[in-house]
User: Fold this.
Amino acid sequence: MLQDSFGRRFYYLRLSVTDVCNFRCSYCLPDGYQGKPDEAFLSASELEAAVRGFAQMGTQKIRLTGGEPGLRSDLPEIIYRLNRIDGINNIAVTTNGYKLPQRIQHWADAGLNHLNVSIDSLDSSTFHEITGHDRLAEVLEGLAKARELGLTVKVNAVLMKGVNDDLAAVLTWLKQTPVTLRFIEVMETSDQAVFFRQYHVRGDDIRQSLLSQGWQPVLRDVAAGPAQEFWHPDYAGRIGLIMPYSQDFCATCNRLRISSLGKLHLCLFAEQGIDIRPYLQTGVPTSELVQAVSEYVQGKKATHALQSHNSGAMANLSQIGG
Ligand SMILES: Nc1nc2c(ncn2[C@@H]2O[C@H](COP(=O)(O)OP(=O)(O)OP(=O)(O)O)[C@@H](O)[C@H]2O)c(=O)[nH]1
Ligand SMILES: C[S@@+](CC[C@H](N)C(=O)[O-])C[C@H]1O[C@@H](n2cnc3c(N)ncnc32)[C@H](O)[C@@H]1O
Ligand code: SF4
Ligand code: SF4
Assistant:
C-alpha cells in the first residue's frame, strides 16, 4: 500500500483528462481558457495504464476532472476502461454540467457511479455572472437526470463573500433535494490574489450555524474527499464544507493527482510534478511505475503553504482539476 513519510495512505487518485474549459468562472478562468486546446493529453490507454499501476498500490477511487472533462469526446470510453480495473470500486466525474442532460446517460452506461457538479448559485442570474453561461436550468436538469439514473450526486459551490454565502437559500433547497451540497472556501492561486482577498470567507461560521441548528457530522470513509459533511433528520440533502485553511486539513490527505499531460503531483499546491507518461507506454512493466511512484511519494510535504500565500505552481485550479 502506497504510504508517505507521515503514514498517510493514498486511496484516491484524481485524473485531469484535459485542461481545456468552456466556462469562465470568476475564481478560476475569468478570461476563459488561454492555453492550446490541441495539447497531447493522456490517451484513454495511457490513463488505463496509470490506473492499473495505482490500483496495485491501493487506489480504490478515481475522479476524472479537468478543465472540463465533458469536453473529452472519449470520456465514456475512459470511464468504461477504468471501471473494469481490479481494485477500483468508484469512478467519479467533477463537471461544470455543460450539456449534462445529453451526456449523463452515456457516462452512466459506461459505469460512472458518482457525479459532482459545480453550481455556485441557485439563482440563475448569479450563476450566469459567475460562470459566464446562462445555463443553470440545463445543469439542474442534468443533475436530476443523474439522480434518476441512480448516481450519487454532489454539488460544489465556491463560497464567495456577499455573492453566494446565504445559507438559508441553500437549506431551503436541501430540504427536499437528496444531494450533498459542499461549500468550498475559495483558495488563493497566483492568478487570483486580488479576488481571494475580496471574496474569501471562512466556512467555520457556517459550520457553527449548522451545529446550532441540529446538523450532525457524518463519519468519513477512507477514500472520501476533504469535505466535512453534515446531515439533519428534517432534510433530504446533506451539506458539506471544504475548508483548506482550517487546522489539520492536510492530516487526512488520502489523494494524489495526475495532470492531463501526465505529471504526477503530490499536492494540489505542489511546485512541480514528475512526468510519468514514459511509464504508461505499451511494453513497459507496471512494476516500473509502481517503483517510481513509491519513491516519489516519500517527498510529499505535510501540508500546503496557503497560509503564507504560497500556491506553489498553481495559477488556477483548471490546470490540474482542483
Ligand atoms: N486544498 C485542497 N482542496 C481540495 C482537495 N481535494 C478537493 N479539493 C477542493 O474541493 C473541490 C471539489 O472537489 P471534487 O472534485 O468535487 O472532489 P471531492 O471533494 O474529493 O469529492 P468527493 O470524493 O465526492 O468527496 C476541488 O476542486 C478543490 O477545490 C485537496 O486535496 N486539497
Ligand atoms: C477546477 S474545476 C474542474 C472540473 C469542472 N470544470 C468543474 O468546474 O466542476 C473543479 C472544482 O474546483 C473548484 N475551484 C476552482 N477554482 C477554485 C478556487 N480558486 N478555490 C476553490 N475551489 C476552486 C471549482 O468550483 C470546481 O468545483
Ligand atoms: S471551475 Fe471548472 S468550469 Fe469553472 S472555469 Fe474552472 S475548470 Fe472551468
Ligand atoms: S492541500 Fe495538498 S496536502 Fe493538503 S489535502 Fe490538498 S493535496 Fe493534500
